[in-house]
Amino acid sequence: MRPRIPSVPPLALAGGALTVGVGGLYLAGLLAGGDIDPGTTVRGVDIGGLTRTEATRKLEERLGEAAPRELAVTVGDRRGTVAPQRAGITFDIEETVDRAARTGGADPFSAIGGLFASGGAVEPVVRVDEDKARSALGKLAKTLDQKVRDGAVAFAGGQVRQVAPRNGHALDVDAAVGPLRGAFVRGEAGSVTDLPTRETKPKVTAEEVRRAVREFAQPAMSAPVTLIAGGKRFTIDQAVLGAHLTMRPDSAGSLTPHLDAKGLRAAPAVAQPLAGLPATAENATLRLDGDKVAVAEDGRPGQEVTDEALSRAVLPLLTKSGTARTGEVATRVTQPQVTRANAARLGLTEKLSSFTVNFEPAPYRTTNIGRAAELINGSVVMPDETWSFNRTVGERTEANGFVEGVMILDDQFTKAPGGGVSAVATTVFNAMFFAGVKPVEYGAHSFYIERYPEGREATVAWGSLDLRFANDSGSALYIQAESTDTSVTITFLGTKKYDEIESVTGPRTNVKQPEDKVSTDKECVPQTPLEGFDVTVERVFLDDGKEVKREPFRTHYTPRDEITCE
Questions:
Q1: Where in the sequence is the domain holding 296, given as residue range(s)?
Q2: Are strands 159-163 and 152-156 parallel, antiparallel or unpaired?
């Protein structure tokens, strides 16, 4: 008999077969070897079934090609580009591979599941260097930031020009890092990313510009204006008006008109008509009839047009039309100090003193002495006022009518502008001396000059030495100045306080002899020798033939060395 073989239940067979199949699949899963699920891609790069090392190498080679070279961005309405690499924005390959790799263990279910998994598309991990990103965005801001521009109204050639307002945009660098990273992640060709900005609105709006043009600018340039000043009538056209007219925003952003009245008054269309007006008052011209004062010509008021008056006259006319664009400019009237009516009341009744200095003729002397006399003539010094030579004559420059001449500098003759004016200073000093008024500042020449009375002469230097006297006579003083080619005469008119003024000159003391010197200076002027000395001159005041008081004037002269020019 054959042995009996036991029967196996169907379920048991199936279970045995299943056990063998699962073991085979588990073993196949373990032997598959790849860390990345099949079908896994990163930006189109297939890394499915690769190990981490293989996936890393492949992405390093291929993923960079998929990265955008430049990112198109806008800041406000301006467009630019940012290079991601310079901005520190790159793909993190290792982190990307970690993200794509399977995370399951070696258990049967994970291993067997890996045989049937499909990875799909994985987004790459992006790394951002914050410092580099901010630096790149900061550079971008310098080119794309837009300053706010207020609306404006301008005038050119008699025409109105409008400037449209514009919003200001400043890139918000900190807030822009995120959007820039997002643009890199998306990597969409041709896309433009709007970066966040801080916007500034203009203070002067387009609506305000339209209002200013409508209500002021267009009427202002519609026609010339006509002005009347001191009886003189003149017209200013639109081109001249516009050259000195602006519209400026106030604190609320409203445009208001402003006129540069000083500039307008200097324009030939205005300056020439106004030049015919006597801007300053002119005193009456006095003359002597014997020793008594007579009025040769009456004084004349001055009519001055100020900048403020010109502006007040012009601005209201600009918004008017037709004949209403004509107006009068208020003038500031100044009265002369001396007139025919008040000369006697001021005490200008007689000659107080007169002195003449003669000099050798020379073109520079004639010019400079004549110009100084012209500026001094007609000076009025009221009681207790101080008169100044430098203030009255001004700086001795070519612009003031003076030429180069010979003067004393550093104890020797030299060439300088205004040479010869000391003759006028000496003449004024002597007229002051014999008029009996009080000297305030004066100085003699460093060495003696023979044509002047010793101890009774003066020189002046702009900025360092002046000739000044105070009018302590109790009445007004009037100074007459006349010159010829060889002389200058100064006369003081007023009311005598003393019957007579005399001069007493003392002996020379402390006499010193000059030296012989040679000069190679190109401005050298030959000089003859003369001794130096000290001298005292006394001013004697007399009333009714009796001496009232004496005043000493002490002067020191250095030797005048002989100068030979080589």
A1: 207-334
A2: antiparallel
